[in-house]
Amino acid sequence: MLYLLISIHIVHRDTPRGVHFRRAGPCERTYFALDEVLACIVTCGGLCPGLNTVIREIVHSLDCMYDVNKVLGIDGGYRGFYSKNTIPLTPKVVNDIYKRGGTIVGTSRGGHNTKKIVDNIEDRGINQVYIIGGDGTQKGAAVIYEEICKRGLKVSISGIPKTIDNDILVHVVLSLAHMIKWKEAQHAINAAHVEAEITENGIGVVKKMSSSNFI
């Protein structure tokens, strides 16, 4: 079993241990019986490249590797849980969505109401929740996990980092869209350079979007 080491503490008697997380990936044993799984996928926050690809791969992996065919898309971010807006996600539905921008299940900012979200998860019998989002979204996922634990529910919460800033507090190797931002930024910079170069006293101005890294 592989673990990702987050921090190291010199361990003395009665001192806390170092922090580590189990690396995601196929395991020898599965926690859930395959016929009892009802999964859901939600995207929160702003858009970034690759969201539909991630949704597609989750659905296909659940279906092909684990024979799980009950997957719901929560429409419109966190508030979609208690608005009860869902989209059935099957391999056929998601097969070609990687060709499209945006996210097939929609997204929104805010709308995090822990009690309402967990109430809905419990009422629907959902036991696998895949949350795709940036640093704020992942903090929300952690709060949902804590509430799940308080209630003693048999539900797994999986956070998938999505941010061009790569600013998730847990030291992920690379977040979704972090590399793509550089590639896409080059197109704008090159276009501005051409315009400025062929014009007398031309100046190209490119505004970056990333908040924590220079593009």
UniProtKB/TrEMBL annotation:
Q: Carries keyword Glycosyltransferase?
A: no
The superkingdom of the source organism is Eukaryota
The residue ranges of the Phosphofructokinase domain are 40-170
Query: What Pfam families does this protein map onto?
Result: PFK (PF00365)
One MF annotation (Gene Ontology) recorded for this entry: ATP binding
* Reaction catalysis annotation: beta-D-fructose 6-phosphate + ATP = beta-D-fructose 1,6-bisphosphate + ADP + H(+)
Record's keyword annotation contains Chaperone = no
A single GO cellular-component term on record: cytoplasm
Q: Name one GO biological process term.
A: fructose 6-phosphate metabolic process
| InterPro entries, per database record | ATP_PFK, PFKA, Phosphofructokinase_dom, PKF_sf
PANTHER family tied to this protein: ATP-DEPENDENT 6-PHOSPHOFRUCTOKINASE 1 (PTHR45770)
Q: Please identify the protein, giving its name as recorded.
A: ATP-dependent 6-phosphofructokinase 7
